[in-house]
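Work Package 4 report. The design task specified in the project plan requires that, given a folded chain encoded as structure tokens, an amino acid be chosen for each position. We show below one input record used in the internal validation round.
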């Protein structure tokens, strides 16, 4: 049987693998391919071990029918995936995302090159209608377009068995943290060689996951995944924003006046903003109801707020573990509790999670975080059961996520 002349270089990885397996399977079980005659000695040379099949099936030319069936099934699968394979730009343009495709075309070419040679990418894209709503798209500088393209491109490094394509009819998609291609040290401060991340997780009873990135935005997924050569395009309601420094993010949410005032009073804004890879637990205004703020000394303010800064650990909500003990800037500790009704840090309940900032992540909390011996609610039923933060917490987000600026 002649060697196939179809090139596999342009195939998707899955197509190439299917073709290669099918071809090897055929060569392995076809008698004519099991050896050749050495022209110098006229001696048969066998390149494949002779196998005695015990399948209770009729064979064709020495090849069991079941093997031939598998061979053709694999070729059919390869053909199907090959038919749908295309480059990122072509797939975007063919599916109504041409405006978004222009971001990649104008961006640093290394971003597109990384996607073309990689695999398992997720591209968070807005279609042309959504791009029209976002009127700033066409006015963005080329450097900003590069940042958006890099932030919107994440790689799914989960084990193959856990890589699921999203479909809107599938509710309760698993929560995940994805590292993007954005690694510019001028706008990312998570540690040497660590790129910016975003969080994708279900919110409440919504049948679609929500993406949490910069500017305190919670962006819902609005369509099914669209496959391309290097992964999938995942349609979202608006552009993924670049995480900002703490002061810039804080300015977006003016509802945390108590916390903002205390930070400015204690001169903690700059040191927290410059810290690398931290988690900030931001108390809502109501958390200070029992505190006479005006009577606090600078040392007391620093002591209180430093206990809310988890150092050397970016605690995105999908990565939190029940019973986890974390160190704070105040040289204290915080214990994480995952309960049926929410997530707690030393007894302080999280009301809005995953505000992504330049140097970490912010979670707003309903009360002040106590010292290392602060009590978490006892586990009821399955200890440590993970609870996703619901839609009712989003209302707090526009207040609490202002805290992101604390960095």
């Amino acid at each position: 049987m002649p060697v196939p002349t179809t090139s596999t270089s342009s195939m998707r990885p899955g197509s190439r693998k299917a073709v290669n397996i099918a071809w090897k399977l055929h060569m392995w079980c076809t008698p004519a391919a099991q050896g050749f005659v050495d022209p110098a000695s006229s001696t048969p040379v066998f390149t494949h071990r002779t196998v005695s099949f015990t399948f209770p099936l009729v064979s064709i030319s020495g090849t069991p029918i079941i093997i031939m069936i598998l061979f053709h099934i694999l070729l059919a699968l390869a053909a199907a995936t090959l038919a749908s394979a295309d480059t990122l730009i072509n797939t975007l343009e063919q599916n109504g995302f041409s405006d978004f495709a222009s971001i990649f075309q104008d961006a640093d070419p290394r971003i597109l090159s990384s996607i073309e040679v990689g695999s398992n990418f997720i591209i968070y894209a807005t279609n042309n209608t959504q791009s029209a709503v976002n009127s700033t798209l066409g006015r963005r500088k080329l450097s900003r377009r590069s940042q958006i393209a890099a932030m919107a491109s994440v790689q799914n490094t989960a084990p193959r068995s856990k890589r699921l394509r999203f479909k809107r009819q599938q509710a309760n998609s698993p929560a995940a943290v994805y590292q993007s291609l954005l690694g510019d040290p001028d706008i990312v401060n998570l540690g040497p060689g660590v790129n910016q991340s975003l969080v994708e997780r279900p919110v409440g009873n919504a049948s679609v996951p929500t993406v949490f990135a910069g500017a305190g935005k919670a962006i819902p997924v609005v369509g099914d995944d669209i496959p391309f050569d290097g992964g999938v395009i995942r349609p979202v309601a608006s552009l993924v924003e670049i995480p900002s420094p703490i002061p810039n993010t804080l300015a977006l949410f003016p509802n945390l006046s108590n916390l903002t005032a205390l930070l400015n009073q204690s001169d903690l804004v700059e040191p927290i903003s410059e810290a690398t890879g931290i988690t900030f637990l931001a108390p809502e205004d109501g958390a200070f109801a029992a505190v006479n703020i005006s009577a606090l000394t600078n040392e007391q303010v620093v002591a209180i707020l430093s206990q809310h800064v988890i150092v050397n650990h970016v605690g995105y909500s999908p990565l939190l573990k029940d019973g986890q003990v974390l160190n704070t800037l105040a040289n204290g500790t915080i214990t994480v509790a995952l309960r049926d009704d929410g997530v707690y840090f030393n007894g302080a309940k999280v009301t809005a999670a995953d505000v992504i900032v330049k140097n970490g992540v912010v979670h707003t909390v309903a009360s002040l975080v106590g010292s290392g011996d602060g009590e978490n609610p006892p586990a009821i039923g399955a200890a440590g059961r993970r609870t996703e933060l619901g839609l009712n917490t989003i209302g707090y987000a526009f207040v609490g996520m202002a805290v992101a600026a604390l960095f």
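Residues 50 and 285 are 77 Å apart (CA to CA). Validation will be extended to a larger panel in the next phase.
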